[in-house]
Specification:
The longest helix is centred in the N-terminal third of the chain and has 34 residues, at 2-35. A hairpin with a 2-residue loop joins strand 1 (50-51) and strand 2 (54-55). 73% of the residues lie in helices and 1% in strands. By secondary structure, it is an all-alpha fold. It has 2 domains: 2-171 and 221-375, Up-down Bundle (Na+/H+ antiporter like fold); 172-220, no CATH class. The protein has a two-stranded antiparallel sheet. Helix 1 crosses helix 5. It is built from 15 helices and 2 strands.
Length: 381
């Protein structure tokens, strides 16, 4: 019964992410078209209109995206307890792959930008957009083994966890220790409630909202509160009565069809300047492009190979090396996560436009390359 529920929850997660990838594509195309239409200025102004002292875009990026990270945190928790990451031998390969897929792109961007003002963008090509990556896998259908889907989801989840750590450590602004300590205090309180057997979900959500506000005021990005809340919500046996299971199951649809499309609409409205081609040739853009299109597949494949050669990991059942390479390219679909980190790394409008354009181009090429590799069924192990 427990294994069936876990499989059902993974299926729900996979299906919601698949559909979300399609919706995100439509939202992005609409946003780009609207920004470059005769009504482009009004479209962009709408997302920057102030609401309670902050722009609408800011509320989406700091508020709604905390719900997205809450869902990611719940998925990480599930994987650690009863999923792919609960078996050390199975977990080790996506962990090593994710580490290689984060470190290599960051190093490439750093080498392009060391000593410049854009070196802060090193975290941009580290990220993987799980919705888009799974969306590509969905188009491949039965041409790929189901174990590859699990491997890529686990890799992307660990990748997202790495991105969250990077955001918390390197993209804090106007840091306030008292607020951060207070936020951590709320988290400790929630852990205590969990240990005492308190399972009432509204209690955790209300305290989580307080923790989100304190984290927002601390200068550490408020979305980190979403992940902390996920690990405080009781998991127990992970069955249908589990608060963690209930919350994760409930969040799939609103995150896939409300939160992520709104994020895309608010952040991909790029008004193309006359010199947009030149923006793709800056050191920052080249670092992002090379990081996503070369660094991601190189890091994922190379570190996976070394881990298996050393005997620390093994290839999942029915997964071939061409599957790992293809998954590496799908990991190069940075899109929403990369754009999210871009907004934290830079304030200069020109750098922001160049970074977002490069992310879109590199993600498109990485996704297409991964699809072509994985759709070829004639490679051998």
């Amino acid at each position: 019964m427990k294994s069936r529920r876990v499989a059902s929850l993974f299926g729900d997660f996979f299906e919601s992410e698949k559909a979300s990838g399609i919706v995100l594509i439509l939202a992005t195309v609409f946003s780009l078209a609207a920004a470059n239409s005769p009504w482009g200025a009004g479209y962009l102004h709408f997302w920057h209109a102030e609401l309670f002292g902050r722009s609408l875009q800011h509320w989406i990026n700091d508020g709604l995206m905390a719900i997205f990270f809450l869902l990611i945190g719940l998925e990480i928790e599930r994987e650690l307890y009863v999923g792919e990451l609960s078996d050390p031998k199975n977990a080790s390969l996506p962990i090593f792959a994710a580490i290689g897929g984060m470190a290599t792109p960051a190093l490439i961007h750093f080498l392009f930008n060391r000593g410049t003002a854009t070196v802060d963008g090193a975290g941009i090509p580290m990220a993987t957009d799980i919705a888009f990556a799974i969306g590509v896998l969905a188009f491949l259908g039965s041409r790929i083994p189901s174990s590859l889907k699990i491997f890529l989801v686990a890799l992307a989840i660990i990748d997202d966890l790495g991105a969250i750590i990077v955001i918390a450590l390197f993209y804090a602004a106007d840091f306030s220790a008292p607020y951060l300590v207070s936020a951590i205090g709320v988290f400790v309180l929630l852990l205590g409630l969990n240990r005492c057997g308190i399972k009432r979900l509204p209690v955790y959500l209300l305290a989580g909202a307080v923790m989100w506000y304190l984290m927002l005021q601390s200068g550490v990005h408020a979305t980190v509160a979403g992940v902390l809340l996920a690990f405080a919500v009781p998991f127990r046996s992970g069955d249908g009565a589990s608060p963690s299971y209930k919350l994760q199951h409930f969040l799939h649809t609103p995150v896939a069809f409300i939160v992520m499309p709104l994020f895309a609409l608010a952040n991909t409205g790029i008004m193309l300047p006359g010199n947009w081609m030149e923006l793709l040739a800056t050191s920052n853009s080249l670092g992002i492009f090379a990081g996503l299109l070369i660094g991601k597949p190189l890091g994922i494949t190379l570190v996976s190979y070394l881990a298996i050669r050393a005997g620390w990991s093994r290839l999942p059942k029915d997964v071939l090396w061409k599957h790992v390479i293809g998954a590496g390219f799908l990991g190069g679909i940075g899109f929403t996560m990369s754009i999210f980190i871009t907004a934290l790394a830079f304030e200069n409008d020109t750098v922001l436009v160049g970074s977002k354009l490069t992310i879109l181009v590199a993600s498109l090429l990485a996704g297409a390359t991964g699809y072509l590799i994985l759709s070829d069924g004639h490679s051998r192990r």
